[in-house]
Write a structure and sequence with these properties.
By secondary structure, the chain is an all-alpha fold. It has nine helices and no strands.
Length: 268
């Protein structure tokens, strides 16, 4: 008799466990929810699951930024004062925004998903709708026809790698900025202890030259404008603005000067 009671109790226990393990979906098809939850352990609906970022050059300076400049920061879409688009993100590093600011813009807005990078709107908005993107809702329309577009993969890998800004260098004034001014473009021909002109002469110590450059103002403006780097005469004049001769500074040197000013124009 005792054994019968034990068997009955065990049968009841297993029936209870079985009942608890059953979920009533009330007619819902579990397949309808496939891929909507990504627990981090699987690819889910990751359009970039097969991208090998180790083999892709996703340098911000040479790969990502040039694409933004040409395709995104144009026509008032992601540039200028009337910027629009995903989270109104500003992607124009050639205007008043420094390259380091672009990363801050992206990560602080709704266009970036830090937990599931592949779901970031900055990737999906310009991607064709029939390829899994949201181009139909994108103000700029379709930019990428497929998720395996090489430029889109570079942007994805840059995001996946933590938005590293290889251009955001710690430019040393004496070694980098002063070298550009004194040696690379021979600014000393005109700016050598001449009245009413900022003095770049080699007779100054780097500290004296730094003080001269960062504090000198003219009727046109400040040589270095930390508040609005693009207004700095150190950037404008060598490009032929304000009636100054155009010295055709290369892009790398212009970027170095702008990054230095954007960082607060430090001495070292």
């Amino acid at each position: 008799m005792r054994n019968k009671y034990i068997i009955v109790i065990l049968l009841g226990f297993f029936s209870f466990i079985t009942a608890c393990a059953t979920v009533d979906l009330n007619g819902l098809d579990p397949d309808d929810f496939q891929g909507q939850i990504d627990d981090g352990g699987g690819d889910g609906n990751n359009l970039f699951a097969d991208v090998d970022c180790d083999s892709i050059d996703s340098s911000f300076t040479t790969q990502v930024k040039p694409f933004f400049d040409t395709n995104c920061a144009t026509g008032g879409c992601h540039s200028g004062s009337s910027v629009s688009g995903v989270g109104n993100v500003q992607l124009d590093a050639t205007n008043t925004y420094s390259p380091s600011t672009i990363a801050e813009e992206i990560t602080s807005g709704p266009g970036y998903d830090a937990f599931n990078v592949h779901q970031s709107l900055i990737l999906l908005e310009p991607l064709a709708s029939d390829a899994g993107g949201n181009a139909d809702d994108h103000g700029g329309g379709e930019i990428f026809s497929s998720a395996d577009d090489s430029d889109l993969e570079k942007i994805y890998c840059w995001l996946e790698g933590g938005l590293e800004n290889d251009d955001d260098n710690d430019h040393n004034f004496g070694d980098d900025i002063l070298r550009i001014i004194q040696d690379d473009y021979n600014c000393l021909m005109c700016h050598n202890n001449v009245n009413n002109r900022v003095d770049f002469s080699v007779g100054q110590t780097p500290a004296q030259a730094h003080n001269e450059i960062t504090t000198f103002s003219s009727m046109v403006g400040d040589v270095v404008d930390v508040g609005t780097p693009a207004n700095s005469l150190l950037l404008q004049n060598p490009q032929g603005m304000n009636g100054h001769q155009n010295y055709n500074l290369n892009a790398a040197d212009l970027q170095a000067i702008q990054d230095w000013i954007s960082a607060g124009a430090p001495f070292d």
